């Protein structure tokens, strides 16, 4: 197995491994998992594996989840299809996000395999949110220690739905609250945990932060937008160009990602497994 770092902050390309074989090899899996904790996203080319092998490798990390809006392969529960045909409208892709942060226990990680992609375009960007936290000014770190934020699926996946369908989506997936700074359960790193599924701070309006009512809305939203914008900083990012059978495996607890939607009308078909994680603390 060879490992080549792709940036100073995040991402490594791993070669000399077949994930179909690794699905049945405990020590190879342990090596890959250890690399994931260090590099946060791993890229592997030429993974001509079956859907069953994709699911089997991801299952080594834990139970898989389906998605309430994006459908799964009927023969492989947990294998979510992210398919954009030549007729697909512009979609929710253009957002930096952490998968499923609107869940009480968001996925700990995910594995994405490219089935079909455009000749050029359709890259994905990942961001190291532990580096984003680490580099915040000390006064901001102090201000956000103990802050919590609400996360919701309603205003993103639900935005294109009828009001009735959106209300059902929200009722089935109630808004959740997570710390703005979470601690990674395996590495102990502190992670800035705010993304495009986050709607507002839950506990900003206290006497420490708000002297007069007027401080509340602009004060909270300026800080909120400043924190959201940290994911846009190139020094924390890696950008991956897909080819069919390329695979990305990421730690969803310490990263965000952004699928660049610049390739219409070319089709792009990806298949993703997401592994159930624990409650952020
Ligand atoms: C995702 O948002 O999980 C999928 C990213 C991609 O399609 O590149």
From TrEMBL:
One Pfam match: TauD
Keyword Metal-binding attributed: yes
Which GO MF terms does the UniProt record name?
metal ion binding; taurine dioxygenase activity
UniProt lists the family membership as follows: Belongs to the TfdA dioxygenase family.
- GO CC terms, sorted: cytoplasm
Which biological process annotations from GO are given for this protein?
sulfur compound metabolic process
Stretches that traverse the bilayer? none
Stored Gene3D superfamilies: Clavaminate synthase-like
Q: Which domain of life is it from?
A: Bacteria
Which UniProt keywords are listed? Dioxygenase, Iron, Metal-binding, Oxidoreductase
Q: What is this protein called?
A: Taurine dioxygenase
Q: Which residues form the TauD/TfdA-like domain?
A: 3-273
Against InterPro entries, the record matches this protein to: AtsK-like, TauD-like_sf, TauD/TfdA-like
